[in-house]
Design goal:
alpha+beta, 2 helices, 4-stranded mixed β-sheet
Length: 125
């Protein structure tokens, strides 16, 4: 059975409102076991460095731990891919049958800037 888990730093700093929203998204998506890995969108933002921040709930539906070691992720909208980067994140290890929120940061040179909300999907390629 899928479980929701928070990385230690997230667990300490997450507001109760954000925690409730993540729990709601988890409850709505935890049974969508259509692949071994899925990303459920939480929010998107641009920070002061003009980096694109994509926060998702990462679902590891597999029987193996999920690690991001030279893993290419693409963020796409209806207009196609707008961000792409290879991630190596030693701090992010998601146990089997576990979902965990995470923010993936795309530096400004790795994405196409859009003026409107993107409402895209993150995918492992």
């Amino acid at each position: 059975m899928q479980q929701l888990q928070f990385e230690a730093a997230w667990d300490k700093t997450l507001s109760s409102q954000d925690r409730d929203e993540i729990q709601r998204i988890f409850n709505e998506t935890k049974h969508q076991n259509y692949s071994t890995i899925a990303f459920s969108p939480i929010r998107e933002a641009i920070n002061h460095k003009e980096e694109l921040l994509i926060t998702v709930l990462v679902h590891n539906f597999s029987d193996n731990p999920l690690i991001f070691d030279h893993t290419r992720l693409v963020y796409s909208t209806e207009q196609g891919a707008i961000a792409e980067k290879v991630f190596s994140l030693p701090a992010l290890s998601i146990p089997p049958h576990t979902s965990m929120p995470w923010t993936f940061i795309f530096p400004k040179e790795t994405y196409v800037k859009k003026n409107s909300p993107l409402n895209g999907q993150l995918q492992k390629k």
